[in-house]
Amino acid sequence: MPYEVINKEIDFKQYIELVEEHLKGRKKTGALESEADFLTGAMSMFVFLEQFPPAHWVFDIMSGKSVLDREEKEQPLHEGHDYQPTHDH
């Protein structure tokens, strides 16, 4: 089988970061013609490996937003707040 990569463990977080860094580089150099086309090509690898692409790639494209303008926050919504879930109805 010519696609030996299938048998190796893939770090999808690293793949996502590399794609987004390459996307930034293409925009910076003026080589980016379509962010949606670029990300769709990157998402095809997820389909090939039977994984789901990052949801923000899909929804940002659909809503006309740029992935490059996104500010990722790696903390849960309630972290740093005095949030106490209640079950009062």
List the defining traits of the structure above.
mainly alpha
Structural notes for this entry:
The protein has 89 residues and is mainly alpha-helical. It has a domain at 10-32 and 40-67. Helix content is 45%, strand content 0%. It has three helices and no strands. The chain has helices at 12-29, 35-48, 55-62. The longest helix is centred in the first third of the chain and has 18 residues, at 12-29. The mean pLDDT is 78.
Question: Helices and strands in order, then pairings?
Answer:
Elements: H1 12-29, H2 35-48, H3 55-62
Rg over C-alpha atoms, rounded to the nearest angstrom:
17 Å
Helix content: 40-55%
Q: Give a short account of the largest sheet.
A: none
Q: Report the span from N to C terminus.
A: 59 Å
- Regions with little confidence, pLDDT below 50 for 5+ residues: none
Strand content: under 5%
Q: Give the mean pLDDT.
A: 78
Strand elements, count: 0
Task: Choose one word for the global shape.
Answer: globular
H/E element string?
HHH
Structural class: mainly alpha
Number of helices: 3
